[in-house]
Amino acid sequence: MATRRELLLKLAAKVSNNQRATAAIATGLAARNGLIQRSSRSFSTAAQVDPPTATIVNKAATTDLASSLDQAKLEGETPKRSRVSDVTIQEVLKAKHTARWVEPVIPHNATVRDAIVTCISQNISGMMVVDRTDTMKRQQKCVGLITSRDLLRIMAASIKDGKSAEEILNQSVIQQMTPINQVIYGRPDETIGMCRAIMAKLGIKCLPILVDGRVEGIITARDMSEFYYDPKDLGGKKNYLTDVSERVGLSENTSMAEPPIFVRQHLASKHDPLFINVGTAEYPHPFKSHDGVGANRRDFGPDDLATDPSLSEDAHFVSTVEMLDESGTNMQKLLYMGVADGVGSWREYGVDPRDFSRMLMGECQNILRDASSECSATGGTACTMISPAELLARSYKRTKEANVIGSSTACVGVFDSVHHQLHFSNIGDSGIIVLRHIDSDVASALQRNRTTPRTERKSDLRIAFVSQQQLKSFNHPYQMGWTGEEVVDKNSSFKQASDSCTSSVHILRGDIIIMATDGLFDNVDIDDIASIALKWELDNEFIDNGGIDTRRR
Fold it and tell me: How many Å apart are CA 388 and CA 445, to the nearest integer?
């Protein structure tokens, strides 16, 4: 019977070089990650306009389309419709501000209570957190962003921690906001379509618009949807009769529909513990030797391609421990795993890049081992589940205390077999992908295979999840590191565990989870990874035409 390790070996064998091909992400997301990278970091007050001007501009903005249509009719031409997705954000922002000017800001010393009141009273979804300490300047220095979703998350986490209502509402906004260097922003010349894509990919509701180092406003999905609606289309008797009257109010006999069959099959076993079979594989660059890395096959020489794991800067760990669950009442087995990629450029300074990544992963395992031993000694009364971010933070602290010089990217996850949740924290360009069998008839438009005719499709294996990477620029991932002293430069590529991209993904039976460094993801296309994984499943008879019964084995 084949093992998970064999699948990983096949994926590793697919890697031909270690080029960091992250251009798409670097030009798309890294370029807009962090307002701190853009000069003055202030909120513009120049967008405020006098009422007469506002009225004129608003009329121009909201009747622009109608005017062009009327003109075309007078000239006997077929009017050309402008696609909403092609409209620039600058036009949307102008229409929003002239219709109703609201300054979406909150002081850095405000509380959660103040933020909630501001959101409701001003009918806004997000606010820039500003520092008004320097009263001599008119500019308000932006230090972060907080949204209505953040406020709900704060309340949910605080209730779970047993905090009182007063404690929750009196928490400081500055401790809960998204720091300015992690805020994703947009540009005025970008289109509605582009901004919608960015917001959908990153799961964000609010997009600050940056102009010459100043936040001119915040755009939401609602702003973009309402842009082409005239006020007369949003109210009045005719619109009520047409759009509302026939669909307002549910009858007393309304009930929820049963989930589809394919969902019920999974729900029937959702309370059963779910376990992961783990395999690991580690390969160095194929042209690597103890003397360095060859630029190509000719430079490397006639020897066999490198397979010695000791040549790799990567490190990993897998550890199963028994701890209290999130409720703090029940003991459960937790599977922890992690990967780290040492930054090879440290060799130029006489530092072995393998030392830091291996120390970081090794200490993660040591911390878990110590926690498990303490849990056994106390009978489970003094140990709770360690989050991936907390585990990274503790390991990083130990690595610094040991004065291990170097840096690496890192991704650490923990699988909760009871709730079928994979929680992870990621810094840099390592990460996780989840492959899932999703039938074409139920797959979403984005997941459906549209390139291969249905009669020729041999797989329903889809990419269900891809973790977000963190890059400072092209080929320059954020990383955890230590130079022998603390780095105070805010623009440094060194990050703390608290800066990691932390998320969770629900896992189903039959899923394939691949956690790897950029050595895999930069050199093997995700679709190729899915093809290799499918072949591995078929060769070892893990599936029969995607049947769920076989996957349960």
Answer: 33
Amino acid found at 504 = S
Chain segment 124-151, per-residue pLDDT in tens: 999 999 988 765 555 688 999 999 999 9
Widest pairwise Cα distance in the chain: 87
481 DSSP β-pair partners: 407
Q: How far is residue 311's CA from residue 392's CA, in Å, rounded to a whole number?
A: 24
Alpha helical stretches, state H, 187-234: 192-202, 221-226, 231-234
Length of the chain equals 553
- pTM for this prediction: 0.68
Instruction: With beta carbons less than 8 A apart as the criterion, state whether 398 and 349 touch.
Output: no
Q: Are 507 and 422 spatial neighbours (Cβ–Cβ below 8 Å)?
A: yes
SS3 state of residue 292: strand
Residue with tokens 């459906």: 448
No. of helices (H) and no. of strands (E), the chain? 19, 20
Closest C-alpha to 208, from 242, 192, 185: 185
Quote the tokens at residue 181: 């260097």
Q: For residues 241 and 272, give the distance between their C-alpha atoms in angstroms, rounded to a whole number.
A: 50
8 Å CB contact between 356 and 337? no
Contact indicator for 405, 346 with CB cutoff of 8 Å? yes
Question: Which residue do the tokens 């998350």 mark?
Answer: 153
For the CA atoms of 302, 304, 309, 314, what is the dihedral angle to 10 degrees? 50
Q: Could you tell me the two tokens for 441?
A: 């008839």
Residue with tokens 């690597």: 288
Q: What is the mean pLDDT of the chain?
A: 78
Token readout for 157 is 């986490």
